[in-house]
Amino acid sequence: MYTTRYAIxxxxxxxQTTQAIRDNFLIDDLFTNDKIKLIYxxxxxxxxxxxxxxxxxxxxxxxxxxxxxxxxxxxxLGVINIGDTASVMADGNEYTLDHKExxxxxxxxxxxxxxxxxxxxACFYFNSAPAHASYxxxxxxxADAPTVELGSQxxxxxxxxxxxxxxxxxxTCQLQMGLTxxxxxxxxxxxxxxxxxxxxxxxxxxxxxxSQTVCHFMGEPQETRHxxxxxxxxxxxxxxxxxxxxxxxxxxxxxxxxxxxLDYDDMDKVLPTDLR
Length: 276
Fold this sequence. Notes:
Layout: E1 2-5, H1 10-13, H2 18-25, E2 26-27, E3 36-41, E4 47-51, E5 58-59, E6 75-81, E7 86-90, E8 93-97, E9 102-105, E10 112-114, E11 124-130, E12 138-140, E13 147-150, E14 159-165, E15 176-182, E16 188-189, E17 193-195, E18 199-206, E19 214-220, E20 223-229, E21 233-237, E22 242-247, E23 252-259, E24 268-270
Parallel strand pairs: 1-3
Antiparallel strand pairs: 2-21, 3-4, 4-11, 5-10, 6-9, 6-11, 7-8, 7-10, 9-12, 13-14, 14-15, 15-23, 16-22, 17-24, 18-21, 18-23, 19-20, 19-22
């Protein structure tokens, strides 16, 4: 099951209503029991996916848009487990992922299957991008990920960034994924904000309490808009857009990128006082 999201010019974005922005950028129904759901974006041909194998294993099949014999014929895949401990099978090899652990699967792997958790509920978030080479399958545990602590309690942005599937940890063609966890009492992420015309990005917000929400800010720095988001919802960020959020409680989010380069620090920073 998949839908397509088309690229939007920033001049058109300025004129969109709240509902149009939500229709074009918000992904609010990614996780459904016993289904794999995909959003095929025309930003760097990036795919956003969710798999919830509640009572049966789920196989990742090619969709019409790929015109491929199997899903990873010309693609790479990154998976992060946001549920209970469960496994992913890749060409007959089993990889068990604990909560927040990641798995990279390179181009050419023909069979990928998501399996139910032995206890609790399995919930896999994954991204895929076109790949020019084949790199080895690699599991990345939280202990393997470079960790950066940024911000402060005083500025309400004290957070821990875990670089899971990034250059320097594993080899990928263009896909990068990691997660950021906000400390209690902190609500702001990615502030000061930035853009990067060389890469698009997707944010998946999770661990958002049921009664709380996150306001995600996007748009050109001098033409910002916002999207209100709930738990396990994602938003697409075009290369020309900032991507920042503030929650009514602390939360976690997964950031994913693809595009021109693998330089994590390639950012065009924007001062808070320059935002409009």
